Each structure stands twice: as C-alpha cells, then as structure tokens.
C-alpha cells in the first residue's frame, strides 16, 4: 500500500506563484513516474505535468513555460512549481504515481487532491 500526501494548495492572485508537493510513502520498490492532474467541476481530470524515471518531463500545452515539475528521488517526492498563474488554472490538483512494489507488481495511486484558486 502506498499513500500520496499533497500540500501547497491555496489562494493566489493572477500572475502569482504557488508550489505543490506530493510525498509517496509505503512499500515502494520503484517509482516509475509521478505527475500532476487537475480537475474542475463538470470537466474530466486532465494531465498537467509528469516526470518519469530518467528525469524526462511532459507538460500540458496550457502550462508550458509557466509550470515546472521536479522530483526528489531520495524523498519520493514530486513538486509542481506554478508561476504566472491564470484564473483558468483554478482546479483541484491531484498527485499521481506509477509505482512498482516488486519487479512484477505495478500499481497506480492518487493523492487526495489540493485546491488551487487563482483570482482575477
């Protein structure tokens, strides 16, 4: 069992910055990838950014150049630095982790979500 604990959400003015963190704990053999998704009412949860083993990253077009995903492998933690925030970034942000418990046992986990509100 793995638990993802998120922190860093809050209220910020447009143009401001916010940093999210997500720490994974439990029986972890390897974290294959960690990422951030977001969801607003009436909308499907969508990918924001992901970082995979090896360090490569992918971003949604809407956040490229503004958001940066990073990780601390020793702490099993992923971060999302959000700059130049826009009202349309307002959403509940969810951490996601693709985790191998053994060489053959691989599961996907979600955090509880953290609210980000960007005021205009």
Short summary:
The protein is 0% helix and 60% strand. It is mainly beta.
Provide an overview of this structure:
The protein is mainly β. The chain is 0% helix and 60% strand. The chain has no helices and eleven strands. The protein has strands at residues 2-7, 10-13, 18-26, 30-39, 46-52, 57-59, 67-72, 77-82, 91-100, 106-110, 114-119. The strands form two sheets. Strands 2, 4, 5, 6, 9, 10 and 11 form a seven-stranded mixed sheet that branches. Strands 1-3-8-7 form a four-stranded antiparallel sheet, with no helix packed on it. A hairpin with a 6-residue loop joins strand 4 (30-39) and strand 5. 28% of the residues are buried. The mean pLDDT is 96.
Helix content: under 10%
Taking all Cα atoms into account, the compactness measure Rg is: 14 Å
Strand content: over 45%
Largest sheet: 7 strands, mixed
Number of DSSP E strands: 11
How do the SSEs run, as a string of H and E? EEEEEEEEEEE
Number of helical stretches of at least 4 residues: 0
Q: Distance between the terminal alpha carbons, to the nearest Å? A: 40 Å
Structural category is mainly beta
The overall pLDDT average reads 96
Low-confidence parts, pLDDT < 50 over ≥5 residues?
A: none
Gross morphology:
elongated
């Amino acid at each position: 069992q793995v638990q993802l604990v998120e922190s860093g959400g809050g209220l910020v003015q447009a143009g401001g910055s916010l940093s999210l963190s997500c720490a994974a704990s439990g029986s972890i053999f390897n974290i294959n990838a960690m990422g951030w998704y977001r969801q607003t009412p009436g909308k499907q949860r969508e990918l924001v950014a992901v970082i995979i083993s090896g360090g490569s990253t992918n971003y949604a077009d809407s956040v490229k150049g503004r958001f940066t995903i990073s990780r601390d492998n020793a702490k099993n933690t992923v971060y999302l630095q959000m700059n130049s925030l826009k009202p349309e970034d307002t959403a509940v942000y969810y951490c996601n982790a693709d985790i191998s418990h053994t060489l053959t046992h691989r599961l996907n986990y979600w955090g509880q979500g953290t609210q980000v509100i960007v005021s205009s």
